[in-house]
Amino acid sequence: MNYETPLFFHVMEYADAADRDVIDMVSGNPDWQPPDALREGLREYADLEPDRFQYPPSEGLLELREEIATRRGVDADRIVVTNGAGEANYLAMARALERDSGDEILLTDPVYPYYPGKTTMLGGTQSYVATDEAGQLDPDDVRAAASAETAAIVVNTPNNPTGAVYPAETMRELVAIAEEVDAVLISDEVYDHYDLSGEFASALEIDSDHRVVTNAVSKSMAVTGVRVGYAVFPPGLVANAKSRHMLVNVATTRPGQYAVLKALRETGPDYYERNRQRLRDRVETFTDALDAAGAEYTSPSGSFYVMARFDGYPGTLENVERLIDEAGVAGMPGEAFGDSRTEWLRFALVTPCVEEAAERLARYFD
Protein backbone atom coordinates (compact mmCIF):
# COMPACT_ATOMS: atom_id res chain seq x y z
CA MET A 1 0.00 0.00 0.00
CA ASN A 2 1.33 3.45 -0.90
CA TYR A 3 1.00 6.28 1.59
CA GLU A 4 1.17 9.83 0.34
CA THR A 5 3.42 12.19 2.30
CA PRO A 6 1.34 15.22 3.35
CA LEU A 7 2.04 18.38 1.35
CA PHE A 8 2.89 20.21 4.59
CA PHE A 9 6.32 18.62 4.56
CA HIS A 10 6.98 19.42 0.92
CA VAL A 11 6.07 23.09 1.38
CA MET A 12 8.15 23.44 4.55
CA GLU A 13 11.17 21.84 2.86
CA TYR A 14 10.77 24.10 -0.16
CA ALA A 15 10.57 27.20 2.05
CA ASP A 16 13.61 26.12 4.06
CA ALA A 17 15.63 25.75 0.86
CA ALA A 18 14.61 29.17 -0.54
CA ASP A 19 17.35 31.71 -1.34
CA ARG A 20 15.57 34.46 0.57
CA ASP A 21 13.93 35.07 3.93
CA VAL A 22 10.52 33.41 4.08
CA ILE A 23 7.75 33.95 6.63
CA ASP A 24 6.41 30.54 7.62
CA MET A 25 2.60 30.46 7.62
CA VAL A 26 2.37 26.74 6.83
CA SER A 27 1.98 24.73 10.01
CA GLY A 28 0.07 25.32 13.23
CA ASN A 29 3.07 25.69 15.55
CA PRO A 30 2.24 28.47 18.05
CA ASP A 31 4.99 31.07 18.44
CA TRP A 32 3.95 32.13 21.96
CA GLN A 33 5.11 30.86 25.34
CA PRO A 34 3.80 27.71 27.01
CA PRO A 35 2.41 28.06 30.54
CA ASP A 36 5.05 28.75 33.20
CA ALA A 37 3.85 25.72 35.14
CA LEU A 38 4.62 23.43 32.22
CA ARG A 39 8.24 24.60 32.10
CA GLU A 40 8.45 24.21 35.88
CA GLY A 41 7.07 20.70 35.62
CA LEU A 42 9.74 19.65 33.14
CA ARG A 43 12.46 21.12 35.37
CA GLU A 44 11.08 19.29 38.40
CA TYR A 45 10.98 16.03 36.50
CA ALA A 46 14.68 16.13 35.74
CA ASP A 47 15.43 15.63 39.44
CA LEU A 48 13.04 12.77 40.14
CA GLU A 49 14.12 9.24 41.05
CA PRO A 50 15.22 6.80 38.30
CA ASP A 51 11.99 4.81 38.51
CA ARG A 52 10.09 7.86 37.22
CA PHE A 53 11.99 7.59 33.94
CA GLN A 54 10.61 4.14 33.18
CA TYR A 55 7.40 3.09 31.41
CA PRO A 56 4.27 4.84 32.65
CA PRO A 57 0.88 3.11 32.63
CA SER A 58 0.12 2.56 28.96
CA GLU A 59 -3.24 4.34 29.03
CA GLY A 60 -1.68 7.37 30.74
CA LEU A 61 -0.80 8.57 34.22
CA LEU A 62 -3.80 8.01 36.48
CA GLU A 63 -3.58 11.52 37.95
CA LEU A 64 -3.63 13.08 34.48
CA ARG A 65 -6.56 10.96 33.33
CA GLU A 66 -8.46 11.88 36.49
CA GLU A 67 -7.75 15.58 35.94
CA ILE A 68 -8.99 15.38 32.34
CA ALA A 69 -12.01 13.33 33.44
CA THR A 70 -13.01 15.94 36.02
CA ARG A 71 -12.72 18.73 33.48
CA ARG A 72 -14.63 16.88 30.77
CA GLY A 73 -17.28 15.23 32.95
CA VAL A 74 -16.42 11.64 32.03
CA ASP A 75 -15.01 8.57 33.76
CA ALA A 76 -11.23 8.34 33.82
CA ASP A 77 -11.29 4.75 32.60
CA ARG A 78 -12.74 5.95 29.27
CA ILE A 79 -9.70 8.13 28.56
CA VAL A 80 -6.56 7.06 26.68
CA VAL A 81 -3.63 9.49 26.84
CA THR A 82 -2.01 9.51 23.40
CA ASN A 83 0.89 10.88 21.42
CA GLY A 84 -0.97 14.06 20.54
CA ALA A 85 -4.35 14.41 18.86
CA GLY A 86 -2.90 12.67 15.81
CA GLU A 87 -2.74 9.32 17.56
CA ALA A 88 -6.05 9.98 19.28
CA ASN A 89 -7.72 10.36 15.88
CA TYR A 90 -5.94 7.28 14.56
CA LEU A 91 -7.22 5.18 17.47
CA ALA A 92 -10.75 6.52 17.10
CA MET A 93 -10.87 5.83 13.36
CA ALA A 94 -9.39 2.37 13.85
CA ARG A 95 -12.00 1.47 16.46
CA ALA A 96 -14.81 2.75 14.22
CA LEU A 97 -13.64 0.53 11.36
CA GLU A 98 -13.11 -2.50 13.61
CA ARG A 99 -16.79 -2.54 14.55
CA ASP A 100 -17.67 -4.23 11.22
CA SER A 101 -20.30 -1.59 10.56
CA GLY A 102 -19.09 -0.45 7.16
CA ASP A 103 -15.70 0.72 5.87
CA GLU A 104 -16.59 4.27 4.83
CA ILE A 105 -15.19 7.28 6.67
CA LEU A 106 -17.35 10.35 6.02
CA LEU A 107 -15.23 13.52 5.95
CA THR A 108 -15.86 17.19 5.29
CA ASP A 109 -14.63 19.13 2.26
CA PRO A 110 -12.42 21.02 2.87
CA VAL A 111 -10.67 18.51 5.09
CA TYR A 112 -7.59 18.35 7.28
CA PRO A 113 -5.42 16.11 5.05
CA TYR A 114 -4.34 13.70 7.77
CA TYR A 115 -7.89 12.31 8.06
CA PRO A 116 -8.04 10.88 4.53
CA GLY A 117 -4.44 9.71 4.93
CA LYS A 118 -5.31 7.78 8.08
CA THR A 119 -8.39 6.36 6.36
CA THR A 120 -6.21 4.91 3.61
CA MET A 121 -3.72 3.54 6.13
CA LEU A 122 -6.52 1.80 8.04
CA GLY A 123 -8.06 0.25 4.92
CA GLY A 124 -11.18 2.42 4.84
CA THR A 125 -12.70 4.43 2.02
CA GLN A 126 -13.27 8.18 2.01
CA SER A 127 -16.45 10.05 1.18
CA TYR A 128 -16.93 13.79 1.51
CA VAL A 129 -19.63 16.27 2.46
CA ALA A 130 -19.06 19.84 1.32
CA THR A 131 -19.34 22.68 3.83
CA ASP A 132 -20.77 26.08 2.94
CA GLU A 133 -18.69 29.16 2.15
CA ALA A 134 -18.23 29.92 5.85
CA GLY A 135 -17.14 26.34 6.55
CA GLN A 136 -20.36 25.36 8.31
CA LEU A 137 -21.61 21.80 7.94
CA ASP A 138 -25.29 21.19 7.20
CA PRO A 139 -26.45 18.09 9.10
CA ASP A 140 -29.03 17.40 6.39
CA ASP A 141 -26.18 16.97 3.90
CA VAL A 142 -24.43 14.59 6.28
CA ARG A 143 -27.63 12.61 6.78
CA ALA A 144 -28.09 12.31 3.02
CA ALA A 145 -24.52 11.05 2.59
CA ALA A 146 -24.49 8.62 5.53
CA SER A 147 -25.49 5.00 5.06
CA ALA A 148 -25.08 1.50 6.46
CA GLU A 149 -21.56 1.57 5.01
CA THR A 150 -20.56 4.56 7.12
CA ALA A 151 -18.22 3.51 9.91
CA ALA A 152 -17.37 7.01 11.12
CA ILE A 153 -18.14 10.68 10.61
CA VAL A 154 -15.06 12.78 11.34
CA VAL A 155 -15.38 16.48 12.13
CA ASN A 156 -13.02 19.14 13.46
CA THR A 157 -14.36 22.09 15.47
CA PRO A 158 -13.00 24.77 15.61
CA ASN A 159 -12.00 23.84 12.11
CA ASN A 160 -8.74 23.59 10.24
CA PRO A 161 -8.63 25.03 7.59
CA THR A 162 -11.85 27.10 7.52
CA GLY A 163 -11.97 28.45 11.08
CA ALA A 164 -15.62 27.43 11.41
CA VAL A 165 -17.05 26.61 14.85
CA TYR A 166 -20.01 24.23 14.80
CA PRO A 167 -22.94 25.22 17.02
CA ALA A 168 -24.49 22.91 19.60
CA GLU A 169 -27.41 22.00 17.34
CA THR A 170 -25.05 20.80 14.61
CA MET A 171 -23.16 18.62 17.09
CA ARG A 172 -26.40 17.13 18.43
CA GLU A 173 -27.54 16.32 14.91
CA LEU A 174 -24.21 14.74 13.98
CA VAL A 175 -24.38 12.43 17.01
CA ALA A 176 -27.98 11.57 16.10
CA ILE A 177 -26.96 10.70 12.54
CA ALA A 178 -24.16 8.46 13.82
CA GLU A 179 -26.69 6.67 16.01
CA GLU A 180 -29.15 6.28 13.11
CA VAL A 181 -26.64 4.53 10.82
CA ASP A 182 -24.65 2.75 13.55
CA ALA A 183 -21.54 4.84 12.93
CA VAL A 184 -19.18 6.69 15.28
CA LEU A 185 -18.95 10.47 15.34
CA ILE A 186 -15.30 11.41 15.87
CA SER A 187 -15.03 15.02 17.00
CA ASP A 188 -11.50 16.45 16.91
CA GLU A 189 -11.60 19.42 19.28
CA VAL A 190 -7.89 20.24 19.48
CA TYR A 191 -8.56 23.97 18.90
CA ASP A 192 -11.25 24.25 21.58
CA HIS A 193 -9.30 26.91 23.51
CA TYR A 194 -9.20 29.03 20.34
CA ASP A 195 -12.92 29.53 19.95
CA LEU A 196 -13.12 33.23 19.06
CA SER A 197 -16.91 33.21 18.73
CA GLY A 198 -18.19 31.86 22.04
CA GLU A 199 -20.23 29.30 20.08
CA PHE A 200 -18.06 26.20 20.53
CA ALA A 201 -19.93 23.07 21.64
CA SER A 202 -18.18 19.83 22.48
CA ALA A 203 -19.61 16.50 21.39
CA LEU A 204 -19.09 15.43 25.01
CA GLU A 205 -22.17 17.48 25.83
CA ILE A 206 -24.24 14.77 24.13
CA ASP A 207 -24.33 11.44 25.95
CA SER A 208 -23.96 8.67 23.40
CA ASP A 209 -22.17 5.38 22.76
CA HIS A 210 -21.64 6.58 19.20
CA ARG A 211 -19.16 9.38 19.69
CA VAL A 212 -15.45 9.74 20.43
CA VAL A 213 -13.88 13.08 21.30
CA THR A 214 -10.19 13.74 20.71
CA ASN A 215 -8.05 16.58 21.98
CA ALA A 216 -4.50 17.55 23.00
CA VAL A 217 -2.56 20.29 24.75
CA SER A 218 -0.41 20.78 21.62
CA LYS A 219 -2.26 23.92 20.56
CA SER A 220 -3.85 25.08 23.81
CA MET A 221 -0.50 25.17 25.65
CA ALA A 222 1.67 25.95 22.59
CA VAL A 223 3.62 22.69 22.94
CA THR A 224 3.19 20.75 19.71
CA GLY A 225 6.47 18.96 20.44
CA VAL A 226 5.46 17.60 23.85
CA ARG A 227 3.00 15.11 22.28
CA VAL A 228 0.33 14.74 24.94
CA GLY A 229 -3.22 14.23 23.69
CA TYR A 230 -6.18 12.11 24.62
CA ALA A 231 -9.29 10.41 23.36
CA VAL A 232 -12.56 9.88 25.26
CA PHE A 233 -14.19 6.64 24.14
CA PRO A 234 -17.59 5.07 24.84
CA PRO A 235 -17.34 2.17 27.29
CA GLY A 236 -17.69 -0.43 24.55
CA LEU A 237 -14.80 0.90 22.47
CA VAL A 238 -12.17 1.83 25.03
CA ALA A 239 -10.62 -1.58 25.83
CA ASN A 240 -9.47 -2.34 22.29
CA ALA A 241 -8.34 1.26 21.85
CA LYS A 242 -6.05 0.82 24.87
CA SER A 243 -4.71 -2.43 23.38
CA ARG A 244 -3.95 -0.84 20.02
CA HIS A 245 -2.29 2.12 21.74
CA MET A 246 -0.10 -0.27 23.73
CA LEU A 247 0.88 -2.28 20.64
CA VAL A 248 1.65 0.78 18.51
CA ASN A 249 3.25 3.13 21.04
CA VAL A 250 3.54 1.26 24.37
CA ALA A 251 2.90 4.56 26.17
CA THR A 252 3.15 8.35 25.91
CA THR A 253 5.99 10.49 27.29
CA ARG A 254 6.02 10.33 31.07
CA PRO A 255 7.80 13.68 31.68
CA GLY A 256 5.40 15.37 29.27
CA GLN A 257 2.36 13.98 31.08
CA TYR A 258 3.76 15.11 34.44
CA ALA A 259 4.38 18.64 33.14
CA VAL A 260 0.97 18.84 31.46
CA LEU A 261 -0.75 17.75 34.67
CA LYS A 262 1.03 20.49 36.61
CA ALA A 263 0.11 23.03 33.92
CA LEU A 264 -3.56 21.99 33.91
CA ARG A 265 -3.74 22.41 37.68
CA GLU A 266 -1.86 25.72 37.90
CA THR A 267 -2.67 27.64 34.70
CA GLY A 268 -5.52 30.12 35.01
CA PRO A 269 -8.01 31.16 32.31
CA ASP A 270 -6.11 34.40 31.68
CA TYR A 271 -3.36 32.44 29.87
CA TYR A 272 -5.82 31.12 27.31
CA GLU A 273 -7.66 34.44 26.96
CA ARG A 274 -4.40 36.29 26.21
CA ASN A 275 -3.68 33.90 23.39
CA ARG A 276 -7.21 34.16 22.00
CA GLN A 277 -6.85 37.93 21.99
CA ARG A 278 -3.50 37.61 20.26
CA LEU A 279 -5.21 35.64 17.51
CA ARG A 280 -8.10 38.12 17.24
CA ASP A 281 -5.56 40.92 16.73
CA ARG A 282 -3.66 38.93 14.12
CA VAL A 283 -6.83 38.04 12.22
CA GLU A 284 -7.72 41.73 12.05
CA THR A 285 -4.22 42.74 10.93
CA PHE A 286 -4.03 40.04 8.30
CA THR A 287 -7.50 40.47 6.86
CA ASP A 288 -7.10 44.26 6.67
CA ALA A 289 -4.11 43.68 4.40
CA LEU A 290 -6.04 41.13 2.37
CA ASP A 291 -8.70 43.81 1.87
CA ALA A 292 -5.97 46.11 0.58
CA ALA A 293 -4.83 43.38 -1.81
CA GLY A 294 -8.37 42.91 -3.12
CA ALA A 295 -8.58 39.32 -1.89
CA GLU A 296 -11.53 37.31 -0.72
CA TYR A 297 -10.96 35.64 2.63
CA THR A 298 -12.53 33.69 5.45
CA SER A 299 -13.17 35.34 8.82
CA PRO A 300 -12.37 32.53 11.25
CA SER A 301 -14.55 31.92 14.28
CA GLY A 302 -11.81 29.76 15.77
CA SER A 303 -8.47 27.97 15.24
CA PHE A 304 -5.37 29.61 13.72
CA TYR A 305 -6.11 29.94 10.03
CA VAL A 306 -7.30 32.32 7.33
CA MET A 307 -8.06 31.15 3.80
CA ALA A 308 -7.65 33.68 1.01
CA ARG A 309 -8.43 33.77 -2.69
CA PHE A 310 -6.53 36.06 -5.03
CA ASP A 311 -8.01 36.69 -8.48
CA GLY A 312 -6.26 34.59 -11.12
CA TYR A 313 -4.03 32.85 -8.59
CA PRO A 314 -5.47 29.41 -7.74
CA GLY A 315 -4.34 27.46 -4.70
CA THR A 316 -1.95 25.07 -6.39
CA LEU A 317 1.38 23.79 -5.11
CA GLU A 318 3.08 25.56 -8.00
CA ASN A 319 1.58 28.90 -6.95
CA VAL A 320 2.57 28.33 -3.33
CA GLU A 321 6.14 27.80 -4.46
CA ARG A 322 5.96 31.00 -6.54
CA LEU A 323 4.71 32.87 -3.51
CA ILE A 324 7.67 31.61 -1.48
CA ASP A 325 10.18 32.60 -4.17
CA GLU A 326 8.68 35.93 -5.20
CA ALA A 327 6.88 37.24 -2.08
CA GLY A 328 8.69 35.48 0.76
CA VAL A 329 5.50 34.08 2.31
CA ALA A 330 4.85 30.36 2.71
CA GLY A 331 1.23 29.21 2.92
CA MET A 332 -0.58 26.01 2.06
CA PRO A 333 -2.27 25.26 -1.27
CA GLY A 334 -6.03 24.97 -1.07
CA GLU A 335 -5.87 21.84 -3.18
CA ALA A 336 -4.27 20.08 -0.19
CA PHE A 337 -7.60 20.31 1.67
CA GLY A 338 -9.91 18.77 -0.92
CA ASP A 339 -11.83 19.78 -4.04
CA SER A 340 -13.90 22.70 -2.77
CA ARG A 341 -11.12 25.19 -1.99
CA THR A 342 -8.72 24.65 -4.89
CA GLU A 343 -8.83 28.38 -5.69
CA TRP A 344 -7.74 29.29 -2.17
CA LEU A 345 -4.57 29.48 -0.09
CA ARG A 346 -4.41 28.82 3.65
CA PHE A 347 -2.27 30.87 6.03
CA ALA A 348 -1.48 30.01 9.67
CA LEU A 349 -1.42 33.07 11.94
CA VAL A 350 1.09 31.58 14.37
CA THR A 351 4.02 33.85 13.59
CA PRO A 352 4.98 37.23 15.07
CA CYS A 353 5.52 38.37 11.47
CA VAL A 354 1.82 38.42 10.53
CA GLU A 355 1.87 42.16 9.75
CA GLU A 356 4.99 41.85 7.57
CA ALA A 357 3.53 38.81 5.79
CA ALA A 358 0.33 40.71 5.13
CA GLU A 359 2.27 43.65 3.70
CA ARG A 360 4.28 41.35 1.44
CA LEU A 361 1.10 39.76 0.11
CA ALA A 362 -0.53 43.15 -0.44
CA ARG A 363 2.50 44.36 -2.40
CA TYR A 364 2.75 41.15 -4.41
CA PHE A 365 -0.89 41.17 -5.50
CA ASP A 366 -1.18 44.95 -5.94
UniProtKB/TrEMBL annotation:
Pfam families: Aminotran_1_2
Named cofactor requirement(s): pyridoxal 5'-phosphate
Domain Aminotransferase class I/classII large: 21-358
Keywords from the named record: Aminotransferase, Pyridoxal phosphate, Transferase
Any one GO BP annotation for this protein: amino acid metabolic process
InterPro entries referenced in this protein's UniProt entry, alphabetically: Aminotransferase_I/II_large, AspAT/PAT-like, PyrdxlP-dep_Trfase, PyrdxlP-dep_Trfase_major
Annotated signal peptide: none
Domain of life, per lineage: Archaea
A GO molecular-function descriptor: transaminase activity
Assembly behavior: Homodimer.
UniProt family annotation: Belongs to the class-I pyridoxal-phosphate-dependent aminotransferase family.
UniProt name for this protein: Pyridoxal phosphate-dependent aminotransferase
Protein source organism: Natrinema longum
